Amino acid sequence: xxxxxxxxxxxxxxxxxxxxxxxxxxxxxxxxxxxxxxxxxxxxxxxxxxxxxxxxxxxxxxxxxxxxxxxxxxxxxxxxxxxxxxxxxxxxxxxxxxxxxxxxxxxxxxxxxxxxxxxxxxxxxxxxxxxxxxxxxxxxxxxxxxxxxxxxxxxxxxxxxxxxxxxxxxxxxxxxxxxxxxxxxxxxxxxxxxxxxxxxxxxxxxxxxxxxxxxxxxxxxxxxxxxxxxxxxxxxxxxxxxxxxxxxxxxxxxxxxxxxxxxxxxxxxxxxxxxxxxxxxxxxxxxxxxxxxxxxxxxxxxxxxxxxxxxxxxxxxxxxxxxxx
Amino acid sequence: xxxxxxxxxxxxxxxxxxxxxxxxxxxxxxxxxxxxxxxxxxxxxxxxxxxxxxxxxxxxxxxxxxxxxxxxxxxxxxxxxxxxxxxxxxxxxxxxxxxxxxxxxxxxxxxxxxxxxxxxxxxxxxxxxxxxxxxxxxxxxxxxxxxxxxxxxxxxxxxxxxxxxxxxxxxxxxxxxxxxxxxxxxxxxxxxxxxxxxxxxxxxxxxxxxxxxxxxxxxxxxxxxxxxxxxxxxxxxxxxxxxxxxxxxxxxxxxxxxxxxxxxxxxxxxxxxxxxxxxxxxxxxxxxxxxxxxxxxxxxxxxxxxxxxxxxxxxxxxxxxxxxxxxxxxxxxxxxxxxxxxxxxxxxxxxx
Lengths: 325, 352
What we know:
The complex is a heterodimer.
Chain A: H1 19-32, H2 34-57, H3 60-63, E1 67-71, E2 77-81, H4 84-115, H5 118-133, H6 136-162, H7 179-203, H8 207-215, H9 220-249, H10 252-257, H11 276-284, H12 290-323
Antiparallel strand pairs in A: 1-2
Helix pairs in contact in A: 2-12, 4-7, 4-9, 5-7, 6-7, 7-9, 8-9, 9-12, 11-12
Chain B: H1 19-42, H2 47-71, H3 73-107, H4 135-166, H5 171-181, H6 186-200, H7 207-232, H8 235-243, H9 248-259, H10 261-276, H11 280-285, H12 304-314, H13 317-346
Helix pairs in contact in B: 1-2, 2-3, 3-13, 4-7, 4-10, 4-12, 6-7, 7-10, 8-9, 10-13, 12-13
């Protein structure tokens, strides 16, 4: 008689996660929270180091247009730091960038989604992705040596024929390193993000509505006007705001093509302007003591500004994408 | 018995325009080119801009006009819209072509072998380009990339796993935070490392400080790409793993991650491409040495973007030549990464 081997004892039936799973879930959750921790730390540290400046300057830090640290003969240091002019400049340049860049990006996204043959589409998508991977210092170098001479010529034309419009006027015909040039460089730099967000949104347009429009005899443009734009316009606004966030935070490229002067200048063609991010690297080299703290405070302002714009933009884009499903 | 051979049916597109139908449009475009040439010649408008502008206006008007005459007003508007959309796309294409062309044509003038064997320790940026090189910057950039990978890939991939596999409470919120983090300006990342590490801890300006600043920019890129890839892994695979009695850890480690391997490599490469050319954070964090430094934890370090930056800021013809050559080397690096990402991204999920 052969003895049958005794079967292994049945495993305990349980919903309790095993040790390996508990370790896994714990680790992954921990790392999942890491980005939240990093983001909080960034805000915390910049605010902490800039606290003295905020306390000293108060609200004037946001509105003041002077940036000076004067040491008198008696050795007394008088500080006067304000990013007002730089904030105005940042918004001005970003506005120029949006006015030029967003229409181009939307047209490009429309072409890629509804017009382009498959092969051209593939190439163009790669090109737009490549644009996003170009280093910003490359845009700066190219902007300075190639784009600026061209833009200066356009600025001359605008000044000549349209100077009766206040923004196109200038105290002197000096168009080098103006907010207009910086805005043009930024316009090219925000094209990839705005294009890819718009493309994603246009591609989510409900197919039944598109087909309904065609079935009713609409031309391609008629379909885009009556179906795609009503569906996607808020998403495109979100994409444009993501571009705005990029434009606010761009540093090196703007620094190369902008003449940073601590004065409020609303004449976009005139060669002086401001930008918070570029101002920080301009002043960083010779900054000591209090000025370093003031620059960190300026960094905090920039951080909060871009964070708010980005959060709003992401919320809008997400809502639009959801409504298509 | 006879065997019938069936000729393979060639796919036809009866709606595609025949050459005869395209011909009038081409003729109209040629006409527009001639007309814009004539107008530029006889009026005060001058320059390439005038050519391009006139060609666009006349060309679209002629083609739209022809369509309008043939098929009415809505066809006219439709044709106009197509031309404008095409022009928009072409205008996005132009700067890229111009950037690539100027970088290559300006950069190759300064290329020579000693560039990759010498540093700027004994040479000045205003010396002729044949003196000195960018070895120190290349080494620095490779260090920065390597440390950033070591720091941000585990963090990015594990965050992506949290968002796709665990889907714990608050994963929606974490998703939101990751997106917000991807918008952090690079200059802020540099300031943060300065304000937290360089001011307060023994870590001074060095490759490690620079790499930590770059990691802040790299983590969100890795997370978002990795998340997209993990979402593409079919749910059947996860269920199969669980049906076989595997724990979640086993399922993820032996099934989900291997299935998404190529995509995860793409995520890493895209992350590296994002940070390889960053300049602003490095200006606060690595010190910008002109000499070779093999120790990533101590002493100032150089990097390619900083090398370009120094050349550009000095502004002499020789230093600007250095900047162009440096940016060419950097661009080639980015292009290689980009092509690699495409190659791996092309075959994302093998199990299907």
